[in-house]
Design brief:
By secondary structure, this protein is of the alpha/beta class. Bound molecules: NADP nicotinamide-adenine-dinucleotide phosphate (NAP).
Length: about 325
């Protein structure tokens, strides 16, 4: 049986459970593609998967060894029956949340063809590996939940994180005036580079006073990518005829009494939104900032970093012949 290197867990638990193993290469079934991955994107939600959070939330039984990771990029090496949109040799990126035949922290993964996309024009495989999960979530939030319109003022809390830095770029490309609350000086620099009209440190001494000092007393729309008391204050600054939204899982989720209409959404992938994201990326020059690239053996350290300060996206090098990034 052909095998591959993969970072897997033998049981749910802390970062130290992740280890590199030789595991069987999965086989594509009907409508599926076998990808040889160059890189896997590391999502903030991968930690919740590692801890068994999704398995207990959804009541599913996991089988071990369990390969983590829900997005990546590489080449199609085999197409299953009925998969005829993408063909062997095509460079692709793909998502596969809780991917049934194993995650993306591996040399190979099998994905539904529906969730595969050509690599965006001008992107490296590294960028393509890191853009989909966070980009789809950002677009779902801005476009589907908030219905953001040109000329509106949008506040993004968590603007220097994985979803946030892409949300700032997408919203600016949609013609919104983006007020970014980022984390730390480096986060403020990243949010500014992403096209924010105003970027401030949301972890500074008094971000609300700073906003008011800059003449910002309210917003049309609010995208929350972090929870807590600042999130609730920002909900109160959102115009009653406006809208606030947050992806399920931000911690803590806002108290509905702070903004009763706050919309909870999911970054669910499907072919339709993937197509919209690809178009938005190519038209707007949207690019992920990949802050760090880890080897498969370094994934425990990458997961530890997810708990601390990090900027933009992170990725793992899954093929030894891929550039280190
Ligand atoms: N349900 C879904 O479909 C879905 C999909 C994707 C993401 N999510 C959730 O959405 C959230 C964001 O995802 P992500 O991938 O962007 O996570 P992330 O990369 O960890 O980004 C969150 C960002 O918020 C920043 N932050 C926290 N408090 C802040 C404050 N007071 N002011 C300014 N910035 C602050 C963090 O800074 P530090 O790093 O310095 O702490 C971090 O940069 C997560 O909770 C994730 O679980 C849900």
């Amino acid at each position: 049986m052909a095998t591959m290197r993969a970072a897997a867990i033998r049981r749910f638990g802390p970062e130290s459970e992740i280890g590199v193993e030789e595991l069987p290469i999965p086989e594509p079934g009907e409508g599926q593609l076998l990808l040889r991955l160059s890189y896997a994107g590391i999502g903030s939600w991968d930690a919740f998967e590692r801890e068994g959070g999704y398995a207990s939330m959804l009541g599913t039984r996991a089988s071990f060894p369990y390969i983590l990771g829900s997005q990546g990029a590489g080449l199609v090496v085999e197409a299953g029956r009925g998969a005829d949109r993408l063909k062997p040799g095509d460079p692709v990126c793909a998502t596969g949340f809780l991917n049934p035949k194993g995650g993306f922290y591996a040399e190979y993964a099998v994905v539904d063809e529906e969730l595969g996309l050509p690599i965006p024009r001008g992107y490296s495989r590294l960028e393509a590996a890191a853009v989909l999960g966070a980009g789809l979530t950002a677009l779902r939030g801005l476009s589907d939940a908030l219905r953001l319109r040109p000329g509106e003022t949008l506040c993004v809390l968590g603007a220097s994180g994985g979803v946030g830095h892409l949300a700032v770029q997408l919203a600016a490309a949609m013609g919104a005036r983006v007020v970014a609350l980022a984390s730390g000086e480096d986060g403020v620099a990243l949010a500014s580079a992403c096209g924010a009209y105003l970027a401030l440190d949301g972890k500074g001494p008094d971000p609300l006073d700073e906003l008011r000092a800059r003449g910002i007393a309210s917003f049309d729309k609010l995208l929350l990518l972090a929870g807590g008391s600042l999130a609730e204050e920002l909900c109160r600054m959102t115009r009653p005829e406006g809208a606030a939204a947050f992806p399920a899982g931000i911690a803590p989720e806002p108290d509905p009494s702070a903004f009763p209409g706050a919309l909870r959404f999911y970054g669910e992938p499907d072919r339709e939104i993937s197509g919209r994201l690809l178009a938005a990326i190519e038209a707007g020059g949207i690019r992920p900032h990949v802050d760090r690239v880890f080897e498969l053996e370094e994934l425990p350290a990458a997961h530890r970093l997810l708990r601390g300060h990090h900027l933009g996206a992170m990725a793992a090098r899954t093929a030894r012949d891929s550039p280190r990034g």
